[in-house]
Amino acid sequence: MGDYDWNERNRQQVLEGRQILERTSASLARSNQIAIETEQTGHEVMSELEVQRESLLRSQRRLENANDGLSKSSAILRAMHRNVFYNKVVLILIIVMEALILAGLLYIKLSH
């Protein structure tokens, strides 16, 4: 009977070991499947991020072009503002000269 108990005990341990091994194999298979799914998700995310990166780079280039255009427009507006100021100064000088000439002519006409 001692042999029988020993064999039965070994058989039970082997069965338990096999069950543990099967559970471990199933767990590893699930972990492997999760890793594959995670890798696929990672590739999808990286592809989407690459598309977004390209979109952001295109937007950045458009903004740089717009900024260049705004800089040129600002320079043109400054030049126009300066020209308007000079034109006003010249116009005021012409009006003052005309007033002085008119005053001089009136003085000459009234003094004779």
TrEMBL record:
Which keywords appear in this protein's UniProt record, sorted alphabetically?
Coiled coil, Membrane, Protein transport, Transmembrane, Transmembrane helix, Transport
Gene name of this polypeptide: 110674049
> What membrane topology does the UniProt entry give?
Single-pass type IV membrane protein
One GO term under biological process is: retrograde transport, endosome to Golgi
Location in or out of the cell: Membrane
Main localization of the protein? membrane
What the record says about family reads: Belongs to the VTI1 family.
Name the source's superkingdom.
Answer: Eukaryota
Q: Does the keyword Zinc-finger apply?
A: no
**What is the name of this protein?**
Uncharacterized protein
Q: Name one GO molecular function term.
A: SNAP receptor activity
Q: What does UniProt give as GO cellular component?
A: cytosol; endoplasmic reticulum membrane; ER to Golgi transport vesicle membrane; Golgi apparatus; late endosome membrane; SNARE complex
